[in-house]
């Protein structure tokens, strides 16, 4: 059976409603929600750095997920830039309100699986080296630590592992593709 527009007939040029249907009886609508793929997930992960190069990383204990270590981050909300989403997620998850010099340094794409995940890696600096993280979401994170990028605890949350691999110029973890952002007028790894 081939898909055909649901026809009104005559000279009616109004847009069709209801999408396409299969020709014949008992067919499934081509736009049937049960046949659609899940919507892509667009997220952000923040490499929040102190002046000594230490990275903020949290111990993630979210119910229903294996425990892991994770960069601050989450979903990008409608109308947000990656940088704004990173600053918001840092504040929501760590209580740190002042971040400086936010910029995208990579995009990480989760390949394979049943859902597309795109995560932007955003580099940021704390406003003060004395900044300490609190636990506004104790059901998700039970502690935050500052660690050298080469001495991070394990296991890492998958998106965080991909972003950190990009930052450290290492190969992408299995199942991820990395797309470095172009950098103009700045060192791509300043602060490391």
Written account of the structure:
It is a single chain. The chain starts with a strand and ends in a 12-residue tail after the last strand. The relative contact order is 0.20. Helices cover 12% and strands 32% of the residues. The protein has a single domain (41-180), classed as Nucleoside Triphosphate Pyrophosphohydrolase (Alpha-Beta Complex), CATH 3.90.79.10. The protein has 2 helices and 10 strands. The strands form 3 sheets. The protein has a 5-stranded mixed sheet, with helices on both faces. Strands 5-4-9 form a 3-stranded antiparallel sheet.
N-to-C terminal Cα separation, in Å?
Answer: 59 Å
Number of domains: 1
CATH topology title: Nucleoside Triphosphate Pyrophosphohydrolase
Number of strands: 10
Shape: globular
Structural class: mainly beta
Helix % is: 10-25%
CATH class: Alpha Beta
Mean pLDDT: 84
Number of helices: 2
- Strand/helix succession: EEEEEEHEEEHE
Largest sheet: 5 strands, mixed
Rg, Cα atoms, Å: 22 Å
CATH architecture label name: Alpha-Beta Complex
> CATH homologous superfamily - what is it?
Nucleoside Triphosphate Pyrophosphohydrolase
Strand content is 25-35%
Sequence stretches where pLDDT stays below 50 over 5 or more residues: 1-10, 14-25, 185-192
List its salient traits.
192 residues; 12% helix; disordered N terminus; 2 helices; globular; Nucleoside Triphosphate Pyrophosphohydrolase; 3-stranded antiparallel sheet; 5-stranded mixed sheet
